[in-house]
Amino acid sequence: MKELDSLQEILGFSFEDISHLQRALVHRSHLNEASGSALESNERLEFLGDALLGLVIAEELYRRFPDFQEGDLTRLRSALVRTETLAGVARSLQLGDYLQLGRGEEETGGRNKQRNLACVLEAVIGAVFIDQGFDMSKEFILRILDSEFETAIEGNLESDPKSKLQELIQARDQITPAYRTIDSFGPDHDKVFTVEVLANDIVLGQGAGTSKQRAEQEAARAALEKLKEEGN
């Protein structure tokens, strides 16, 4: 188990029962060529880790961004749990070096396959949960995905004018922009809202949309254009 000591150092997590980590590293192909082995593949732990990952990320996004709508939260969660993202995290933790693979999988580059890397990361998360419970697995997930959170959030802010405006105004004035509905017209099933956004009681922009949320986004977009023109 000395080999797994180095992996635990990389993970920043010490298992109380090292067999949980050992099982998380066993690819199905290894069992196909290891007749009589008492090991089992990491697929059950992968299933558990996948569920934990989704829950922890959803809770963290919900907590961090109380003003985000469902679509924004879903887009961020998808960016964080996609195979490419998880494979990148697995590479940074060198998990591919510790995978137990069958000969055929090894010869076809199994240690570098994104699917294998994403799955072993989820299996390790599942193993952390089995070993020490939810709080520790949550802490582990948020730590190893910290930089990915920042990358995903920055990318989302670029496509979300309301969040981008809030970031700018809070940095400049240490206040949060306020939105005010100033008009609405049309039948209930097809109503159009007009909204303006203010900071320090100064109107920064105005927008219209078929919902208050859309109108706020358009108002924020107009405010960003105005601030850009003014050089702010």
CATH topology of the largest domain: Ribonuclease iii, N-terminal Endonuclease Domain, Chain A
Q: Give the second-level CATH assignment, the architecture of the largest domain.
A: Orthogonal Bundle
**What is the molecular shape?**
elongated
The chain-level mean pLDDT equals 89
Radius of gyration: 24 Å
Supply the number of structural domains.
2
**Helix/strand-derived class?**
mainly alpha
Under CATH, the homologous superfamily of the largest domain reads Ribonuclease III domain
Share of β-strand residues: 5-15%
Major sheet description: 3 strands, antiparallel
Task: Note poorly predicted spans.
Answer: none
> In whole angstroms, how far apart are the ends?
57 Å
Number of separate helices: 13
Helix content: 55-70%
CATH classification, class level of the largest domain = Mainly Alpha
**How are helices and strands ordered from N to C?**
HHHHHHHHHHHHEEEH
